[in-house]
């Protein structure tokens, strides 16, 4: 077989295969050697440091050890009849393989897929599964982007998971991180000009400087590999606002073009979903309309408006969302900051979303891994918000025109926190992470003892879902509500209608009404009862002290009613 590696400025490169060194021949900026073997690594220049393959597909012994040859053709797929899923009308379920089950592996997660299919979700979004140093972590500190984390089950384990999802009609979204590399095992710069500057999380990639053509190819090939070779259906692109690219054609647009071509070749929809802090609708504007051509993006403004309305928290980036009418305005416009002043940033921010952009291109959620895990104690909404308000929040998300997303356990109001955790073996790095985390929250008034130690294995254990909760009182009823809301999006097409011109919101004080065709979702987020006059209505779904009467809808405190209007 042929071993190849990009090392444009090296004067010498060797490949060590199964313990034996072999000189490699230069081919322009690449080096190659035809050798048979299994475990391998590269020695660049005259240094004796053995480095894993930047394009490694398998790291059985961790990110600092040799790579292993992996044959994609050896896996026996059973999803030949899978035709994929388009995003419109879909429901996403975000999960972390390591804490979704007690086992923390792909195979253990497969045992819960029937539950997800029965719940009614259509897309399973998996937090990053690329190789990172240590055994436990969120996955955003990956350093070998094409190799699947071995403790989860390695590349074959991930393929078994994807294959099992497809058998149940579930599409798979994989979270990928191209904006930085982790702090341990990031050897790319030993091979060539991969890095250019850094951001809050680590070294960033050289996307527009000298030598950046191959770096961009590295990113795009990685993305295509997940979609083609692992049969993944969609990619969630982490924090694309941190991608520094000043070229005329942005990396994201280039990626969208190549994914569109691959989609035609494999004959199934392939979806790109961005996480962005830019509030720039051009990301999800079609390329023929001079946009980047991505298919969707997370909308944190929708989350923030809902969070403030449900919790009353107004610190940090939540401050502006305490303004009167923030929730109905954001529900209508997608972005609260749309060329308007942001006190958190100290400047104007964002731009308006054109009315013709369909709402399904924006994801709506009450919770996600960031908004829970980046709180000091990793507490979920269920730790501080009443069941009545949790139900109202869920109803607003699922009855909005946006694409709903659930974070694992949210659907039964899980009480387990989801905290920040890592397991770097290097004691100095581990201590730096621990200290940095505590200092960060000390600036916001938290005591050191209040912030969980991210390196302590107990932090991971606390963050695992407790599946026994599903059958307990309170949790069981919340799960039933989520099942009903998801089912209603299928049985009432108006609820999934993504045309924003068809969507209206009325609000005053503590109540708001969402107009969805002939359906009305009436919510009371306050504690005092209200009666809203509606003509000739019949109940479809109620929560809390909500009653449909001849003179309208009576809403007790923290309740909602979804009603069908008559003639």
UniProtKB/TrEMBL annotation:
Its EC number is 3.2.1.141. The active site is at 238 (nucleophile), 275 (proton donor). Its main location: cytoplasm. It is found in: Cytoplasm. Pfam families: Alpha-amylase, DUF3459. It comes from the Bacteria. It is an enzyme of class 3 (hydrolase). One of its GO terms (biological process) is trehalose biosynthetic process. GO terms for molecular function: 4-alpha-D-(1->4)-alpha-D-glucanotrehalose trehalohydrolase activity. Keywords: Carbohydrate metabolism, Cytoplasm, Glycosidase, Hydrolase. Pathway: Glycan biosynthesis; trehalose biosynthesis. The record marks 370 as: Transition state stabilizer. Substrate binds at residues 236-241, 300-304, 369-374. SUPFAM superfamilies: (Trans)glycosidases, E set domains. GO terms for cellular component: cytoplasm. It catalyses: hydrolysis of (1->4)-alpha-D-glucosidic linkage in 4-alpha-D-[(1->4)-alpha-D-glucanosyl]n trehalose to yield trehalose and (1->4)-alpha-D-glucan. Residues 94-443 form the Glycosyl hydrolase family 13 catalytic domain. Belongs to the glycosyl hydrolase 13 family. This is Malto-oligosyltrehalose trehalohydrolase. The gene is treZ.
